[in-house]
Design brief:
By secondary structure, the chain is mainly alpha-helical. The chain folds into two domains: about 40 residues; about 30 residues.
Length: about 70
């Protein structure tokens, strides 16, 4: 069978992840929460807006710091 490196990595990932998922109740809850979050468009939009605002605030903070260092 002629498989690529990425296919081998993916198969190895699933070989590890599936038994963990079937045996671990906390992991199943986390996966269920992530899937629920992913399928809730309104929640995804809110998270994206919060992430954009956080990045904008971070960039503004760096800009203000730089300006204060240059001026002061």
């Amino acid at each position: 069978m002629d498989t690529t490196f990425f296919q081998k990595v993916e198969l190895r990932f699933w070989d590890i992840f599936l038994p963990l998922l079937s045996q671990s109740e906390p992991l199943r809850k986390v996966v269920k929460a992530v899937v629920t979050f992913y399928h809730n468009d309104q929640l995804v939009r809110q998270a994206a807006l919060i992430a954009m605002l956080a990045c904008g605030g971070f960039a503004s903070g760096i800009l203000i710091f730089t300006i204060l260092r240059v001026v002061g």
